[in-house]
Amino acid sequence: MRLTLSSGARNMLSKNPPIALLAFAFRPFFLLSAAYAASIILGWSLLLFSGATLPISWPALLWHSHEMLFGFVTAAIAGFLLTAMTNWTGAAPLQGKALLALVLLWCAGRVVMWLSATLPWLVVALVDLAFLPVLAIYVARVLLRAQNRKNLILVVILTLLFIANLLMHLGQLQLSPWLMRQGELFGLNLITLIMVVIAGRITPAFTANWIRMHGGNPARVIRSARMDLLAIVSTALLIPLNLGGAPGSVMAVFALAAGVFNAIRLFQWRGWLVNKEPLLWILHLGYLWIVVALLLRAAGLLLPGLSDSLWQHALGVGAMGTLILGVMTRVAMGHTGRALQLVRFGLLIYIAIILSGLFRMLAAAQLIDYTAGVMLSAVFWITAFALFVVLYWPILSRPRADGRPG
Fold first, then answer.
1. d(CA 306, CA 297)
2. TM segments (predicted)?
């Protein structure tokens, strides 16, 4: 995904250039997403293993999942979506004071969630819930103004994410872990769908382009509209089935179908052809985690004793962590006028997130000592995202290398 601004947008940025960090949404949101990913797991680890306490009123496990889904992931979504929209529509990017206001709104949500025990429920809920509707309204206005209706589905998904978050807050008000759990699963399913849609667009396109640039035949990367539809629809159907309380056997059939269709889709993209390019194979690996999670979800519904923690952490640590880092490390280079390659020591980010996912899965499957496995997973997760902040801060906080606006 390379940015192509309209002449009007370029002129606007040239006449009123904001500071570099606020020139494009991916800059602050990617840095905040990574820093917050490390912070959540650090706080969660302290709660689990040190006996420390935090001023939170939520059950610790649900606070952890909420902040992963509606804190960490939503920042990454905002950074990607607000940047991609300029490419889709030619509109000027959200930047300067307006971008800063949106960033501060996201930050305010994180502050109240970390201090929820000291604040009224209504204050916590209103502040935390505000970010997604504001983001959705802005995205809808830009897309409608540009008559780009095909991407309005993302506005629908943002709205549904808001509803999922609302369910968690209502569950907290009613002291209902069940309702909070419904919101959590709703959010998890929606984010899975977002990954299937977005990664399904960019991964085969980037792969085919790389093969073409290196003298190969891009037609080897198969992009089948029929398989795309099957993969997306089967994944999307898990949402109403889950909300409607479908029997486990029915959920298992649809989860299995979604896993198989997404596996075929991934195979058609021929990821092994780009094994020499880390910025690409990491995207294929992240999508593989989605396939693994869907298949484990089906297996857990059919096999007694198989923990839900397996498929949920395959999604959370594996797919979300890997795909978000894969997208951020690529966009950070391409949209700042730099060559599309990993920065020095950047491979350590990928190694750390891979190890985090593997250790978390081994712990969930009880193949290693649970405490040791979770601790190692946490250490590697924090390492991966902290490294992103350290290595990409100089890139994301400075002007474009080619002197262009943005």
1. 9
2. 68-86, 98-115, 121-140, 152-173, 185-204, 225-243, 249-267, 279-299, 311-333, 345-368, 374-395
